[in-house]
Write a structure and sequence with these properties.
The complex is a heterodimer. By secondary structure, chain A is an alpha/beta fold. Chain A has helices at 17-23, 28-35, 64-76, 84-89, 101-109, 153-164; strands at residues 5-11, 36-38, 52-58, 61-63, 77-83, 115-116, 129-134, 144-146. Chain A contains 6 helices and 8 strands. The chains are: A alpha/beta, B alpha+beta.
Chain lengths: 179, 499
């Protein structure tokens, strides 16, 4: 049998809905497992760090750690895919972009209801927050975009099946038409 | 207990050990340890390193957007956020839970049972079962759902299908498996058709049978690894959650009950709309996650755990027969009023799966879910509070609006936050009992991750990935120089990295 396709996935500033949607392929997971080997992925964690065929990125970039992980993925993955609204345009977390970051922090840690020992967490162990949440294409080159919040299980299925079959992925209208 | 390990007396000259990358808990987290010259642990912390700012950026949005916005906060249990927000905005349109139309109430409960079922099934089968079936220190290539599907096809496939069923319940009620739109202010936007109901009914008995089988499985796993499963990461704590008026297990709506470690009642039937009188949250500089505590007991003693273990500990009984029998067996195992074993979270999680499957069947057979009276409305209010038992524990949503229906204030206490102290204490217990004074080894790293994972912290799949990704541990002396670098490889092997 030909070598299995190596797929890595990660969640940056996302809600994990995109990962959940990938799991929604249900029993088709057995079929997928025949053709795909998961590298770094929070879901199936058959693991080893190394070059991959496909990297699926959920979530935008909100702190220095996200930048670091994203760059690492770009370096290791032949094909990098922005999965879902957050990776493509920042999504819900980017709603904070029109508010000064300091105000967001104050609301939670200084002025919040029933807050004791009010202070903004500042330990050096915490990664630096970026003042805006960025879509991933602002940081690295992206090869494909999978729209949706989240993209449906069928979108994942159709995308991965195409690549497995050695075809150019194309999403028919009904898979990118929402609500 | 292990609070003395939160902050070392003298930080100078201690070695710093970081377990990073990314034990994402509620986003992203990591564990740091400070060790003295004998490798004795002086400090251990679980840091949550991600910040969203939802409470601020939601201000200025119309309240009716809340149920669809908040579910995008965290998607391991989006329906819980959806429903907590819905309960809050019910109050904004003047509807208290008792005034919700019967059909809407039952549809929401059905939706919620589907959610808890799928979330618990996901955690147990997709994420935890590999560890529990193959062992915490098994080959890492084994520790994934695909390996479970290969080696235990029956268990694995049942897990996949149980989760699928939960997702299908969600889809039938809210239109989509993820980010549907079922609940609206004062009710629901649709009921079930007969076809939708029959579609779900066709599978429900099978789901109950499999759920019962999973409870038997976890009991066997737990009891054949004693005393390890009873002692590992175990801490004696208070517990908090909702119960029904008669003390039964409740997931959708009830009063707050809290018990102390001996089982004495701290609070009962407390109206959650006054939660701010009893719960405050402490901020600590080293983590973005706050530390909630019961004000009556104070910061030191008032913290508590939530989630399946808390709920099963707190309730007097479960109102579905098979789950109740399972609960009684669970209690008999420990013999004491409260069960503190952290790994017992898994056992209680599966008891709840069974309860959900049984309850779904009851609701599917109830004609009210096909009713047409779905929305009620009363007089506008300016503050709404919705509380629900999410899969991971009590979830609080609190919103204020102005005369134009625009959100002016929001306060959320998400379930995992309530387990913040518990997870930190469990990490410290493991650090103190299982690794203090030892060389850094693979079991050390595994043990820390197993302790955190038992809580099924939100974004648990990511948390689960700790140690599955190549995990790097750095030893840094107090001057900040790196003195040792270890790498845990994908096969579990620990290698020393040369600079
Ligand atoms: S795109 Fe939607 S589902 Fe995906 S991470 Fe963002 S909010 Fe979640």
């Amino acid at each position: 049998m030909a070598d299995k396709l190596k797929v890595a996935t990660t969640s940056l500033a996302g809600c994990f809905g995109c990962h959940m949607s990938l799991l929604d392929i249900d029993e088709r997971m057995l079929e997928l497992a025949k053709h795909v080997e998961f590298d770094r992925s929070p879901i199936t964690d058959i693991e080893h760090c190394g070059p991959c065929d496909i990297g699926l990125i959920e979530g935008g970039v909100c702190n220095s750690e996200n930048v670091h992980v994203l760059r690492e993925f770009r370096k290791n993955c032949k094909v990098l895919v922005a999965v879902g609204a957050c990776a493509i345009n920042g999504g819900l977390p980017a709603m904070r972009n029109h508010i000064p970051l300091e105000d967001c922090l104050k609301e939670s840690y200084i002025d919040g209801l029933g807050v004791e020992n009010a202070q903004i967490p500042s330990d050096p162990e915490l990664p630096l927050l970026l003042d805006k949440v960025h879509p991933i294409h602002e940081i690295v080159k992206v090869d494909y975009y999978m729209p949706g919040c989240p993209p449906s299980a069928d979108v994942f299925w159709s995308f991965l099946s195409a690549i497995i079959a050695g075809q150019e992925p194309a999403l028919p209208y009904d898979l990118v038409h929402f609500d | 207990m292990y609070e003395n390990l939160e902050t070392a007396d003298k930080q100078k000259n201690l070695k710093r050990v970081v377990v990073d990358p990314v034990s994402r808990v509620e986003g992203h987290g990591k564990v740091t340890l400070l060790l003295d010259e004998n490798n004795k642990v002086q400090q251990a912390r679980l840091h949550i390193v991600e910040f969203r700012g939802f409470e601020k950026f939601i201000q200025g949005r119309p309240y009716w957007e809340l149920p669809v916005l908040v579910q995008r906060l965290c998607d391991i249990c989006p329906v819980s956020h959806h429903l907590a927000a819905a309960k809050a905005i019910d109050q904004l349109v003047g509807i208290d839970p008792v005034n919700l139309p019967v059909s809407a109430d039952k549809l929401r409960r059905l939706l919620h049972f589907g959610q808890v079922l799928q979330s618990h099934a996901l955690h147990f089968f997709h994420l935890s079962s590999p560890d529990l079936l193959f062992g915490f220190e098994s080959d890492i290539s084994k520790r994934n759902i695909i390996a479970v599907l290969n080696d235990y096809p029956e268990v694995g496939l049942q897990g996949v299908k149980l989760r699928k069923f939960g997702q299908e319940v969600i889809r039938m009620v809210s239109g989509k498996r993820i980010h549907g739109t079922g609940a609206i202010a004062g009710g629901m936007n649709k009921s079930l058709t007969k076809e939708e109901r029959d579609y779900l009914l066709a599978d429900v008995d099978q789901m109950i049978e499999w759920s019962a089988g999973s409870v038997a499985l976890i009991k066997k796993i737990h009891c054949s690894n004693l005393p390890y499963y009873d002692d590992f990461a175990t801490i004696e704590t208070n517990y908090l959650g909702l119960t029904k008026a008669d003390g039964a297990l409740e997931l959708y709506h009830g009063g707050i009950r809290a018990k102390d470690k001996l089982g004495n009642t701290i609070l009962d039937h407390f109206d959650y709309c006054n939660y701010n009188d009893i719960i405050h949250e402490e901020v600590r500089s080293w983590t973005y996650m706050k530390f909630p505590y019961l004000t009556s007991l104070g910061k030191e003693d008032g913290w508590y755990r939530v989630g399946p273990l808390a709920r099963v500990n707190n309730c007097d009984y479960i109102d579905t027969p098979l789950a109740e029998a399972a609960r009684v067996e669970f209690k008999q195992h420990s013999g004491s009023a409260m069960v503190h074993s952290t790994l017992a979270f898994h056992w209680t999680r599966l008891i709840e799966v069974l309860h959900c499957a049984e309850s779904i069947k009851t609701l599917l057979n109830d004609p009210d879910i096909m009713g047409s009276d779905l929305v009620a409305q009363g007089e506008k209010r300016y503050r709404g509070i919705g509380v629900i038992e999410a899969p991971r524990g009590t979830l609080f949503h609190d919103y204020e609006i102005d005369e134009n229906d625009i959100v002016t204030k929001a306060n959320l206490i998400v379930s995992t936050t309530s387990n913040n102290m518990g997870m930190n204490e469990s990490v410290r217990q493991v650090a103190a009992e299982y690794l203090s004074g030892q060389e850094l080894t693979e079991p050390l790293l595994n043990n820390l991750e197993v302790a955190i994972r038992a809580y099924d912290p939100c974004l648990s799949c990511a948390t689960h990935a700790v140690g599955k990704m190549p995990l790097q541990v750095e030893l840094i002396n107090a001057e900040g120089e790196c003195i040792d670098k270890l790498m845990k490889q994908s096969n579990g092997e620990i290698i020393k990295l040369e600079d």
